[in-house]
Amino acid sequence: MNLSAHFFIMYSIVMAHEILSESGSAIELRLVELEWVNRCRHGDGAALEALIAKHRSRLVRTAANLLRDRYEAEDVAQEAFIKAFREIGKLRDDRAFAGYIYRICVRLCMDRLRQRRPEVIEFDAVQQSTSSSVDTRILVEKLLNLLPLDQRTTLVLREIEQLSYEEVAEFMKVPIGTVRSRLHAARERFRKLWLEAVKD
Amino acid sequence: MRRLACSKFQRLSLQARDRSLTESESCFVGAHRKSCVACLATERETVCALDLLTSTRYEVVVDDAFNARVLRMVKVTSGKDSWAYWSPAVVGAAIACVALIASLQLISKTSDSHRVDVSVSEAHRVKTTYSGQALELSDVAPIR
Question: Fewest CB within 10 A of the end CB: N or C in chain B?
Answer without folding.
Answer: C
